[in-house]
Amino acid sequence: MKLENNIDISEVEGNASPEIKLALQNSLMQRQRHVSRPAGKPFRGFETEFASRMQLLEASILSKAEEPDKLEGRTVFEVFVDEDVLNRSGIMHGGCLAMIIDFCSVTPIYVLSASTGAHGVFGVQQSLNIMFHSPAVLGDKLHIVNTTLTIGSRARSGRCEIWNITQHRLVASAVCTNMVPSELSKL
What we know:
The chain has four helices and eight strands. By secondary structure, the protein is α+β, with helices and mostly antiparallel strands.
């Protein structure tokens, strides 16, 4: 199915609505756009280049395994480890993993919130608590699984696990806290 901006969401699995899948794809596409420097020169930074290689595989709303009366959002992305994300030891840089977690961990929160009529916004990350488990190297395929933990009226939390499906091991896991920004800044 191709919707606005000629984005194809037909390959995205899961029971989230086409509009929600499109919003996730648009969010990914926005990270791929050129950013202008003050001097007017186009700039494509690391996040821009990396986001262009990420693929959204799933966007779902499911019954929570531990509490079947409650729902959880779930999103899954995939990406290959390329040279530009390696540190000098030849493994994927922790900062690159943190960038993936920063973007991906909020997506199931958006999916569930938008599906249930709550705050359908991506929000602002307040904290990322990351545990690094094993290295990923050039050519490894990463499977990024994200789920919601809680959704309140302002604070929301989610979990992200980055699995190396080439080596069959967990690379990193994280818990994030996200908030719905105020309508008007009180600064």
